[in-house]
Predict the structure.
Amino acid sequence: MEVRRTSKLEKLSVPKDICYKNRYWDPFVLEAIYMQYDENVPNFPLERGARAKLDRMLKFLRDTPETKAMYFRNIPYTLSHGSGRSHLVNMCMLWAKETSLYDILEKGKYSEETVSDEIENNINILQNTVSYKVPLLLKPIFDIKNPNSVFLPCMQTGAYNKTTRIMIEMGVPRECALYLNNLLFNDYNGAGKEDITIENEVRCLLVNEMDKLPYWIRVQLEFLG
């Protein structure tokens, strides 16, 4: 049986580097994605058609026999079909487009009796499904179609501006990073600079401006020293 499987593995069309990058996926499942998914993926959350592409990627993974099990392992059933999937896709796009947590939650439709539970559920969706499980599920498609896309990193961090993402990766809480980006980095130009250079410049500016920031922001930046 093992010899037969090895023989089949050698005949797969999916490039080996895709299998190495997604070593927790069955190579035969990766083969199904490689051979059957024929649409481009979005490069950036703000580009035209990004939401529709995200929706179709999730639908493909749900409806393709080889990927169905992985889909339901990562996507709660209540978010997998119809209005549930539409809600998930909307949350993904709002999060990746740097919509504040307050504004995302405010857009929700809540009943008076269960408002606190529904808000808590939406926060859980953002923290677990949107930031972690959806990017994990979509990674093979992006590795195959466009490994240079920043769409998934934007979804993971909840930010699309390079300076915002770098602050979050440094350890600045997301909502604080959104505030600081709007306050300090609207005119910052990091084009052509390496990430380490941008990080050093961001860190220096934050330290230099620390005394001018509101107390509740300074508290969250104490780790900068």
User: Anything to note?
Assistant: Residues 161-225 form one domain. The radius of gyration is 20 Å. The chain has a mean pLDDT of 93.
